[in-house]
Design a protein that fits this description.
The protein contains nine helices and seven strands. The chain is α/β, with parallel strands linked by helices.
Length: 330
């Protein structure tokens, strides 16, 4: 973004799950673009969430303000409907508008960290996982979207994983990531007549706080991790996907993209924004080095991709047939 450019001046944004990772990066980018950003989540100074990590929404808001933006940290458990309802009522009372809602809730929930076959999955926390990582998004949209409908404009962004239907992990995390893509798709059909857009977006190889720790590097030394995994050299900071959201929010024709599954790197190609260091990482153009993956995982991904293509081809044909049976639009 060019110095001094603030395309979202006067806009009000909520980033649900602004504590760390993609959520923090999106909140920072919205702030640098001129929006007033409500940074929400459960982790506040002196009272962290059950994740047990040090990041807080207070820190995120302070980062935005140090950079010259405006932010408000508001502790909200988005799985508790009354807390979300109170947040939205406060925003409506204080500003009378809501222009951007980003749901990045529980993207790094440690309860979803299991990796393995579905028949071996520990389901002890299944209800809590689905409530915190999926139902929370629905609750937040339910209460926030009416303000946008009233104004006949706005953008809802669901942060997910991967730009295809597949996602890694276990049946619980896979269900959540797929459902978030579907949530944007389903909301889009209802919201388009009201002038409100809904999309899903994925970052590439994200240098979140936890990922940097896993590689034993910092944001200043992240390139050193390329010695361990060459793919990491095409990674992106959380600010990159944030600037993708800004580009969408500033686009007067964003409604043309409603319902779509988007990626940070594809949007960067089109809108021309860069990462914090001036690079333009392109995860989609990378010939990913899979030499370190076990053969069973490569076979699983190959079979999954083949099945997905057949599934999508069949659904496309059926959907075209269904559309043809509907009366023509007046």
């Amino acid at each position: 973004m060019a110095p001094g450019a603030a395309p979202l001046t006067g806009r009000i944004a909520v980033v649900a799950g602004a504590t760390r990772g993609a959520g923090r990066g999106i909140a920072r980018a919205l702030g640098e673009a001129g929006a007033l950003v409500y940074c929400t989540g459960r982790s506040v100074r002196g009272a962290p969430s059950p994740y047990g990590r040090p990041e807080t929404i207070d820190e995120t808001a302070e980062m935005i303000e140090r950079a010259g933006g405006k932010a408000i940290a508001a502790r909200v458990d988005h799985a508790i409907e009354a807390e979300v309802e109170a947040l939205v009522a406060r925003i409506d009372r204080d500003h009378g508008r809501l222009d951007v809602l980003v749901n990045s809730i529980a993207g790094e929930d440690p309860m979803m960290a299991m990796y393995g076959s579905f028949w071996k999955t520990d389901l002890a926390n299944a209800d809590a996982i689905l409530r915190q990582s999926l139902l929370s998004h629905i609750i937040t949209c339910k209460h926030a979207v009416p303000i946008m409908i009233r104004a006949r404009g706005g953008l809802v962004v669901e942060v997910t994983e991967n730009d295809v239907l597949m996602a890694g992990g276990n049946p619980l995390s896979q269900t959540v990531k797929l459902a978030l893509k579907g949530l944007a798709f389903n909301m889009a059909a209802e919201l388009k007549p009201h002038g409100v857009a809904a999309v899903a977006i994925t970052p590439g190889f994200l240098r979140s706080e936890s990922m940097l720790e896993r590689f034993g590097v910092t944001e200043a030394t992240w390139r050193d991790a390329g010695k361990r995994d060459v793919n990491f050299l095409e990674s992106e900071s959380p600010l990159f996907v944030g600037r993708a959201v800004v580009a969408l929010a500033a686009d007067l024709d964003v409604l043309e993209r409603t319902g779509q599954l988007l990626s940070s790197w594809e949007l960067a190609r089109e809108y021309g924004f860069t990462d914090a260091d001036g690079r333009r990482p392109d995860w989609g153009a990378l010939a990913i080095d899979v030499s370190g993956l076990p053969p069973w995982l490569l076979e699983y991904m190959r079979i999954g991709a083949e099945i997905q293509i057949r599934w999508l081809d069949a659904v496309r044909a059926r959907t075209k047939r269904f559309l043809g049976q509907l009366p023509a639009k007046n």
